[in-house]
Design brief:
GO terms for molecular function: anti-sigma factor antagonist activity. The chain has four helices and five strands; from the N terminus they run ββαβαβααβ. The protein is an alpha/beta fold and about 110 residues long. The longest helix has 16 residues. It starts with a strand and ends in a 5-residue tail after the last strand.
Length: about 110
Amino acid sequence: MELNIHFRKINNVLSVFIEGEIDTFTAPKLREKLESIVISQERLIELDLSKVTYMDSTGLGVFVALYKNVTRENGNLKLVGLTARIKRLFNITGLSELMNIEVGAKVE
């Protein structure tokens, strides 16, 4: 399945909408798009994962790398709209304790 990623900035929040499957084949595209964000200019980044249908550990690695980059630059990263299945991945790995996650919330 194809991975679609698009950005929208409202006020001081950069929203990133991700749709599709995040796996070994699509993670490089996601990583490239997320690395293009100039974190020093974007202090609050929200990733809307409500349309992510599947994610493996490769996807988790992409989000961990982004989290490290954002926090190193004193920014904030929020994950919103996680399905129960995706949220479970973050719980199992302990990442839900580290990252700001809002289950069911979506960027309007």
